[in-house]
Amino acid sequence: MTAQHSLRRRLASAFALIALCTALLFSGFAVVFMYALEDEFFANLLAQETAHQQASWRESAALAPPLRPFVSVHRDEASLPPDLRRQPGVARGGEFFGDGGRHYHVRQLALPAAPPMLLVAEVGTELLVRPRLPKVLGLLGGSLLAILALTVGLGYWLAWRATRPLNTLAQLVGGAAPGHLPQGFAEAFPHNEIGALARALDDAMSRTAAFIEREQHFTRDASHELRTPLAVIEGAAYLLAEQPMPSLASEQLQRIRSAATHMAQTVDLLLALAREDLAQEGSANPPLQPVRLLPLAESTVVQMAHLLDGKPVSVEVDIGQAAHFCVPQPALAVVLSNIVGNAFQHSQRGCVRITFDGVRLTVSDEGPGLEDAIRTRLFEAGVKGGNSRGHGLGLSIARRLAERIGLELSLEPGAQGGTVATLTPRK
User: What is the pLDDT of residues 274-287, one digit of tens each?
Assistant: First the structure.
């Protein structure tokens, strides 16, 4: 269920609840009012009878025949009907329920120089509310249902009208592409709370679009400024390689050329990452060719070998000839270089093992391991251990690149110490 539909239903339900409570209160009030009106009618009837009897007593010192046939005068409680006589409090007057549907209204009759008497009106056959109560309740119930249906319909319509701009705003913002953010849309919305939200989002979109434009300019300028010196380094290294030189210098020159090539690939990948250009699963790009892991791991070890100079550290590569990942090769090379480089840099002795078990590519070392203080924040930009000489960006970049090409990068403590980095294809 979407948020706007939930809000519509809640608003309609609120209308329905208010209508239901109002109708129930009105129905209860109507029934109470009918009973009160009926009781007031019988009380006035007994008041008229009292005045009639008092007038007759003053004129002739005798009781007059009652004005109505259902009214009777009783000189004491002994003469009362049996079903009325056995009820407590009859002498004080009031309303009483008898047997067989009989209903009594009793009032004291005070006459000069005479003992108190009782006026009794048996109104069972004169009741108006009780026999008609089922019809009245049916009418009230039908009216309640009609009002409830009308209120629900009206409430849902009002909720639909109220939330329609919110739905439009959600579709407008939710369907925006990173490079084509909508702007200037706030004026199309009403000047209410939703309009205020639209204006705030419009301002945020404008600031975000300006930020993206600045980043695009930066990536374009960085591409130009970084590629030029790299091309100069590669060209100079190529010309030097054509000249005779000692074997040691030739080896160092080869490392320079390899590093320059790796830097060029890294620059291209980072710029592609900033532009959201890397191939992803489900995209319209052509199928990726399998990348053999053994040659890539061996070349990575050679590129990063200078980090092991002077250290009693051995390297073991246990990867089958057929092992491969179907991912962009340059991106995988950057990720693997980062992982292997970290293992070489932090290993002071022991062995670095690069293995593949048919699913996961693992790089394990026997270094100092992961620091507890940063273990849960390893992949955040700027987070680094106390022995790191970098800026804490390598693992963050590696994680982002791995996710973009469909791999999961994880770092865990090794069973015998050190760190185990694992690359696993995401399902």
Answer: 655 554 444 445 56
3-state DSSP assignment of residue 380: coil
For 110-121, letters b (16+ CB in 10 Å) and e give ebeeeeebbbbb
Distances (CA, A) of 145 to 12, 22, 30, 151, 324: 15, 12, 16, 10, 69
Q: Is 381 exposed, middle or buried (0-12, 13-18, 19+ CB in 10 A)?
A: middle
405 phi and psi angles, rounded to 5 deg: -100, 10
Give me the domains of the chain, ranges plus CATH numbers: 3-143 (no CATH), 193-273 (1.10.287), 287-425 (3.30.565.10)
Residue 280 contacts residue 294 (beta carbons within 8 Å): no
> Beta-strand (E) ranges in 167-296?
291-292
CA 270 from chain centre, in angstroms, equals 34
Q: What is the pLDDT of residues 15-25, one digit of tens each?
A: 888 888 988 99
Sign of CA dihedral 252, 256, 262, 266: positive
Tokens of 315: 């390297």
What does the mean pLDDT of the chain come to? Answer: 82
Local structure of 117: helix, strand or coil: strand
DSSP string of 268-279, one letter each residue: HHHHHHHTT-S-
